[in-house]
Amino acid sequence: MKNFKIVVLVFVFALASCISQEKSSESNTKIVSTYYFIRHAEKDRSDASNKNPHLLEIGKLRAEHWNEVLKNVKFDAVYSTDFNRTIETAQPTAKKNNLKLTFYDFKKIDISNFLKTTHGKNVLVVGHSNTTPNFVNSVLGYKKYEEIEDNNNSNLYIVTISSDSISDVLLYINQ
Predict the structure, then answer these.
(1) Which of 129 and 26 is assigned the larger pLDDT?
(2) What pLDDT was estimated at residue 3?
(3) Closest by CA position to 61, among listed 76, 41, 80
(4) How many structural domains are present in the chain?
């Protein structure tokens, strides 16, 4: 009987140890959210009165180039403002990932809700020369980046958020 009690105690301690290790490894698992921000590609400027122009051919090539640059990222969502130039820039990457575009209005976006909705996901956000760095700054929680120069369609901002850290990098990716 004494040996049986020892075996039961060893079994209970071993089981408790396994459960403790399992809980420990679960709590060590970090959920990471990664955001990729770009500005729309080159737009048609031939009609200054057109507030919603399409992309130029070189812009369409850049949109495909972004798709190539980001080909190894499995996106969970692709966000775009509701303008022809941003939609046409975002579409190749959305299509490659079998995603529908999620439209946003930067003036009305709730950053807390956006971060909650996209928690643990890889997200591409396509915006404009002013909205893209402002969106990045909002996600970071402080102003770091200025508006993008009007002739610059090559910035790629990457923001990574985990439970204990946030990091960002700005890359210049030209065709």
Answers:
(1) 129
(2) 44
(3) 41
(4) 2
- In terms of domains, do 84 and 19 share one? no
Q: Is the pLDDT of residue 71 over 90?
A: yes
Which residue in 145, 175, 173, 146 sits closest to 159, CA to CA? Answer: 145
Domain that holds residue 10: 1-30
Q: Rounded distance, CA 140 to CA 162, Å? A: 12
Do 22 and 39 share a structural domain? no
> Which domain CATH number covers 154?
3.40.50.1240
Number of CB atoms found within 10 A of residue 54's CB: 14
Q: Give 29-49 pLDDT, tens digit per residue.
A: 789 999 999 999 999 999 999
